């Protein structure tokens, strides 16, 4: 495997259908970047959680991880819960290079794409 | 105002910063479709809630509403909570034409844009 892994970090939910777009996104990123290992990790209610996924990636020989929060807003989960988890991971794996990107909702390109989708949903009304 | 309003329906959170990307999205959609009234509504923790926003839109003369759930996944909130709210709104405003779009995470264009953002976050590593 590549030494650099991408982790898509999402909230999680009780309903298994909730994970479907994230799994689709995972496949899309793998297609956009062949050879890259792309994994999902969840904050709660779904597995794997971030710490157990990181443990697995390290065991597989990964030396660098980029975590992208697949959240629209930078609320408590991204600004408070995630940094605590990342600190613990850094403490546990001091040799692992770990980067946390801003949440996807911070990307203007992403918001523009959502905007186009919204306008498209208006139909002819 | 236009008779057709677009409502961006989001989850809500305690942290006010959480609403920022949704407000940015609201402005983007208004720029993409000048003249369209675009409003935010929240499921919980933030205001306005969907029923009170709809009441206001109807009072302002709106006759048609398109609700776009700004959620990645179609979990319990979109598949269970939202339809209940929409049913109540339909019951209360039988003349209002109300359409609910699939969640934005169902759009392949949106997922592709998120994917490009993720790949961009890898840097040169």
Describe this structure in words.
The structure is a homodimer of 125-residue chains. By secondary structure, chain A is of the alpha/beta class. Chain A has a single domain, classed as Rossmann fold. Helices cover 42% and strands 18% of the residues of chain A. Chain A is built from four helices and four strands. The first copy, chain A, has a four-stranded parallel β-sheet with strand order 2-1-3-4, with helices on both faces. In chain A, strand 1 (4-10), helix 1 (20-32) and strand 2 (37-42) form a beta-alpha-beta unit. The interface between A and B is large, with 55 and 55 residues. Chains A, B: It comes from Noviherbaspirillum saxi. Chains A, B: Keywords: Lyase, Metal-binding. Chains A, B: This is Cobalamin biosynthesis protein CbiX.
């Amino acid at each position: 495997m590549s030494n650099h892994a991408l982790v898509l970090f999402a909230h999680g939910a009780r309903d298994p259908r909730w994970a479907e777009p994230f799994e689709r996104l995972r496949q899309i990123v793998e297609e956009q970047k062949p050879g890259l290992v792309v994994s999902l990790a969840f904050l709660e209610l779904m597995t794997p959680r971030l710490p157990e996924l990181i443990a697995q990636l390290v065991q597989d020989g990964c030396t660098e991880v980029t975590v992208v929060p697949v959240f629209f807003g930078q609320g408590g989960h991204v600004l408070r819960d995630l940094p605590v988890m990342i600190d613990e991971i850094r403490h546990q794996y001091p040799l692992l290079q770990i980067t946390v990107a801003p949440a996807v909702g911070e990307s203007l390109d992403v918001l523009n794409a959502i905007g186009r989708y919204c306008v498209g949903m208006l139909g002819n009304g």
